[in-house]
Amino acid sequence: METLTTPEGSRFSDLERLRRPPRRTTGTAFARALERVDEISAFQLGRLKLSQIPPNRMAALARYALGSKAALLERAAEPKRTAMLTAVMRHLEAKAIDEALDLFQVLMASRLLNTAKRKTEKERLSTMPQLEKASRLVARAWEMLVEELETVEEHGTDVDVAALWAALEEVAPRAAVRTAAATVVSLVPEGEDAAGIAMRAALVTRYNTVKPFLALLGESNALSAASGGKRVLAGVRALPALARRKVSVKPLLPREVDDKLVPPTWRKAVYANPDLPQGAVDRDAYVVCVLEQLHRALNNRDVFATPSHRWSNPRARLLEGAEWEAVCEDVLAALSLDMPVEEHLADLVRGLDAGWKQLLERLEEAGPAAKVTIEVQDNGRAKLNVDKLGALGEPKSLASLRKRVEKMLPKIDLPDLLFEVHFWTGFLDVFVHLGDGTTRMKDLATSLVALLVSEACNIGLTPVVNPAHEALTRARLVHVDQYYLRADTITAANAKLIEAQAQVPIVQFWGNGLLASVDGLRFVVPVRTISSAPSPKYFGFKRGITWLNAVNDQVAGIGQMVVPGTPHDSLHILDALLNLDGGVKPEMGREGRPTPLGAAFAEYGRIAKTEHLLRVVDPVDDTYRRQMNRQLTVQESRHQLARDVCHGKRGTIHQAYRDGMEDQLGALGLALNAIVLWTTKYIDAAVEQLHPEGHEIREEDIARLSPLKHRNLNLLGRYSFTASTPAAGALRPLRDPDAPELDEDEDGQR
């Protein structure tokens, strides 16, 4: 209960202080993050066994307590107050560990690994002119030597050393050749991974960055290890003693370190420092080496954290024994794996065999006109060349239909669009109070629409606040934002929109929802945060995040997640597809040495990948490739719509914490789905109206209409939050496409 009181001389209670995640990416900030973990862990609530309490109830209590001020929690009656404090401290312990390890990963990547890599690359480039000059001289001397030796060999005479030296002097002085050779040797170190060795040598200079947190990291009880990470964790446990050791007085000896933690690229830096006594180990190099191994082990989850949400042990969630037997049949049926293993694998083999034979038959059938050719390279390996996919022509009927439909769409402001979509679907009704799961507030829909516009358009609260309207006062909007607008309610609202999108008749011309794509949209984050990362290609000298979103072939956004920086999308695609907001689940056709189970999963996955590639490289039919290309176009068009909607603050995200980023971009995704649903319904109505008017409407043209065009949608100006929805069951009147007046931006590209 002491965490609810405000200490003398402080502006915040201990609970509010512990709720604040780290924002700086420095060694000192990581040390403070570990101290925060230790302070929360001291309550020993994270490891209490509360299996009899439903997890959803614990999560709801924690969310409510996190969203409430300490004074409100202090006034709560017992036992509710104790329950909320227990839930929030358990949640905070896992969250603090997650944030500390997130900071460690960012610190290792941005302040150590990337910094050392840039330094070595810069040094390498600075020596390039010197190396090129020396290499040219050595090459000319070698060519002369080879020519002279070949002449001697051809005539069968003895080697005249004096003549060789004289010929060499004609190329360059002997001293110059010797100096050039020495330069090449010094600038091109021995070993296969010279760049890696040089980078590790540069990493050693970053020891002072990691020194502040070595003791706390080594003594942390949050870390545990699987069999593959026990050696790394033992090395981490030894770091505090190494950090305290005065190596200038008592040098570190090889027997005092774990040699198996030192990979080949580190051996020179660890064991061959010329500034240390013979046989001494470079303590700084060894410490940074161990931290790099920890960095990799955490990514592989060979080392994991407990309790944790993002860095926990994935093996602990595997079922075995009676628990697995109880759900085995249902799980296998859900994965379409209900046949015996031998029969299932044999069926896959037959499918692969048929696919390869079909490819061969189609190559022979197509002959010279095949869209795929096989080229045998000089090294004997076969290379598959696939012809570039040409653009589909746009028939006049499609151009005419697209133009008429776009002109028929009613003009509308974003708030009115959201009100109308709510009138159709009731998607705003799922935004319930954090505490009791009910909706008791008058005009809550108005407040929610204002907040969605504020978050999606990235304009803040000021443009949507109206002190004369109770539902639009700043205090009301802050309250609704805190207690109603959150990840789980956004997900539930999205599910309603996805379901409604699938029910619009015209959607069936676009797809059945079984095809989906995942792509990332990059946002610069100009505020100090550990949840962003650098990427010069996308963010210049700033840092940013990637908003991964999954879109199905019905043009509905079915899932999303936020990741720092610009990691490979493939690392997170499975997470995005397994945690969908709604809709039909699409058909889904470690670094280091994998475990036998991991290798089995990898080989099993290659079967589906091979079948996919065989369809991609079909020598005759490019339908599958065009289907993929169309989905890519849908994804890029949705990203452009997202950019236009999120126009405020030049499209940069100013949230300092990951939860805020996820909530804001979740609101953007929800607004995009609402826009797509509204446009889809009106496109369907326009096509239905054009049919009886005698216009040529071809199914293949309908399939190429897009609900991502938005010339009719106004996103700028003053916002009105007075609902103006049509009468029950009706749509707004469609515009006359033959009217002489043009849209203000008719000649624009929107």
From TrEMBL:
Q: What is the protein named?
A: Tn3 transposase DDE domain-containing protein
Q: Where is composition skewed (Acidic residues) in this entry?
A: 739-750
User: The Tn3 transposase DDE domain covers which part of the protein?
Assistant: 416-587, 588-719
- Name the source organism: Streptomyces rhizosphaericus
Instruction: Show the segment(s) annotated as Disordered.
Output: 1-24, 728-750
